[in-house]
Design a protein that fits this description.
The complex is a heterodimer of chains A (about 230) and B (about 300).
Chain A: E1 2-10, E2 17-26, E3 31-35, H1 42-49, E4 57-62, E5 65-66, H2 75-79, E6 82-86, H3 97-107, H4 112-125, H5 141-153, E7 159-163, H6 171-186, E8 190-194, H7 198-204, E9 206-212, E10 215-222, H8 225-228
Parallel strand pairs in A: 3-8, 3-9, 6-7, 7-8
Antiparallel strand pairs in A: 1-2, 1-4, 4-5, 9-10
Helix pairs in contact in A: 3-4, 3-5, 4-5, 5-6
Chain B: H1 3-19, H2 21-57, E1 60-65, H3 71-82, E2 87-93, H4 95-104, H5 108-114, E3 125-130, H6 136-144, E4 149-153, H7 156-197, H8 200-208, H9 213-250, H10 256-260, H11 268-296
Antiparallel strand pairs in B: 1-3, 1-4, 2-3
Subunit structure (chain A): Homodimer. Forms a membrane-associated complex with FtsX.
Keywords (chain A): ATP-binding, Cell cycle, Cell division, Cell membrane, Membrane, Nucleotide-binding
Protein name (chain A): Cell division ATP-binding protein FtsE
Chain lengths: ~230, ~300
């Protein structure tokens, strides 16, 4: 669950108000698209959820953590409840596909036996079993994003944040990635997907949150072409 | 943290050396050169100190014994001399030994002249070495107050010169070694920072998936320590070859050392233990801590 209560963010360096008294609630099991033009505040919203930055005012609650009161040393605990998929994949280049995915489980001290069974399973879910020993540079953009998805998924997080996950891949593969996210959501994981690809949003529909100039000016559930098919 | 996790992190540190071999090699070279510079400067300082101390040890105080002192009085004087704290060694040099020594140093003609002397005019003397050359004047003054001491001869001016040389040398050596240590630390710090900077994205990703700072630091720490140890071993080997080369040139028994009364250079075997421990400890600590500190900057995500 993600909840913003009167959250404002002003960047000290530039004096820009990135978010202005935002109120938002995303319940467990929701799938929400966050859309809006560049500079609207989408990235700031993501950074707040990951506690990369702190709100200037207001309260942010994520998966039971009150981020205002959360100490620096407890941030890893928060992040272990969140899977993140970035536009630029952010895979560790010196690790194979298997190692990249397994790394998340090693971070949480998972038993070796569990890692050995869980990682191949998750890699198979994203259709990359035959690429497990490859390094990220040996994969296409779409494949790298699927690895990132597997990494986000492997420790069974409560929430997955996908920040422009389709920004660096072919349009055809974009649908495939969102399908995968939808499938994950159906298993109960909350998904927050930031995108500015309106075609995708129109196709899949669902809850759409539009941010503009630091404020939410639209937050409704909309039917998509995908549902009509 | 589980043992298996710790083992994993250590293995990550070891494999990281190869995976990041270019930056690792740069760190290795900088560490090796830095250790070598500081090590050779320190060894030079240690040996020069030894040479100076050798000259100091040869500085003797000659105590001329009164003509009226019999054997018992001489023995009593010896006891009094031994009781002076700054006296290191004491040796009786009898008038006969002095006479023979004088004759030996003469040419045949000169010796013929003294052949007909009916009495040995030279006195019995005690020759003393002192523990601390800086206290030579005080020690000499103390000796002069003793009974049956006719006079004393001590190279106090020479001692003063040696003391000045030693003081200046100590300051210079300390300053040079300290400057080299500072320069080395700055260079090493920049190299490790560059090495870690090249991997900042990797650290960033680890933070996003919930890795603790310790979890991220351990592989870097292990990697830095191993590179430091290998650099230390390299520096040790190079030091051994360089030192032994110099040592072999100066170890010739006949020439300078005996004439000038100087102590010889330390052999490398004599210094092997302290040099090895210093190199390995410095390499491991600088490598590990330097990398670990540089990592810290990128952990604030």
């Amino acid at each position: 669950m993600v909840e913003f209560q009167d959250v404002s963010v002003t960047y000290n360096s530039s004096g820009v108000d990135a978010l202005n008294k935002v109120n938002l609630k995303i319940n467990d099991g929701d799938f929400a698209f966050v859309v809006g033009p560049s500079g609207a505040g989408k990235s700031t919203l993501i950074k707040l959820v990951l506690k990369e930055i702190d709100a200037t005012s207001g309260t942010v609650l994520v998966n039971g953590f009150n981020l205002k009161k959360l100490r620096r040393s407890k941030v890893p605990a928060l992040r272990r409840t969140i899977g993140v998929v970035f536009q630029d994949f952010r895979l560790i280049p010196t690790m194979t596909v298997y190692e990249n995915v397994a790394f998340v489980l090693r971070v949480i001290d998972a038993p070796a036996k569990y890692i050995r069974s869980r990682v191949p399973y998750v890699i198979s879910l994203v259709g990359l079993s035959d690429k497990a020993k490859c390094y990220p540079t040996e994969l296409s953009g779409g494949e790298q994003q699927r690895v990132a998805l597997a990494r986000a998924l492997v420790n069974d997080p409560q929430l997955i944040i996908a920040d422009e996950p389709t920004g660096n891949i072919d349009p055809a593969l974009s649908y495939e990635i969102v399908e995968l996210l939808k499938g994950i959501n159906e298993c109960g994981t909350t998904i927050l997907m930031v995108t500015h690809e309106h075609d995708l949003v129109r196709y899949f529909g669902g809850r759409i949150i539009n941010i503009n100039k630091g404020s939410i000016d639209f937050d409704e559930v909309v039917g998509g072409a995908h549902d009509e098919n | 943290m589980k043992i298996s996790s710790f083992r994993y992190l250590v293995s990550q540190g070891i494999t990281g050396i190869w995976k990041n071999r270019m930056m690792t090699f740069a760190s290795f070279c900088i560490l090796l050169v830095s250790l070598l510079m500081v090590g050779l400067a320190s060894l030079t300082a240690i040996n020069l100190t030894r040479i100076i101390s050798g000259i100091e040890d040869k500085s003797e105080v000659v105590v001329v014994i009164s003509d009226n002192a019999d054997k018992a009085a001489e023995a009593e004087l010896e006891e009094h001399l031994k009781a002076i704290p700054n006296v290191n060694s004491i040796e009786l040099y009898s008038k006969e030994e002095a006479w023979n020594g004088m004759l030996d140093s003469m040419t045949e003609e000169e010796r013929a002249f003294f052949k007909y002397a009916d009495e040995n005019p030279l006195p019995d003397t005690y020759r003393l070495t002192v523990k601390d050359i800086e206290l030579m004047s005080e020690t000499t003054a103390q000796i002069e107050t003793l009974d049956f001491v006719e006079s004393t001869q001590s190279p106090t001016t020479f001692a003063d010169v040696l003391i000045s040389i030693r003081r200046i040398f100590t300051i210079l050596a300390t300053a040079v070694v300290a400057a080299l240590v500072v320069v080395s630390l700055v260079i090493i710090s920049n190299t490790t920072r560059a090495s870690v900077f090249a991997r900042r994205k990797e650290i960033n990703i680890m933070k996003y998936v919930g890795a603790t700072n310790a979890f991220i630091r351990i592989p870097f720490f292990v990697e830095g320590m191993i590179v430091g140890l290998i650099a230390a071993l390299g520096a040790l080997l190079m030091t051994k070859f360089a030192y032994e080369g110099v040592y072999n040139i100066f170890s010739d028994d006949s020439v300078i050392w005996v004439v000038m009364g100087m102590k010889k250079l330390y052999s490398f075997n004599e210094l092997l233990f302290p040099v090895s421990v210093s190199y390995l400890a410095a390499g491991a600590v600088i490598g590990a801590v330097g990398t670990s500190i540089s990592t810290g900057k990128h952990l604030k995500v």
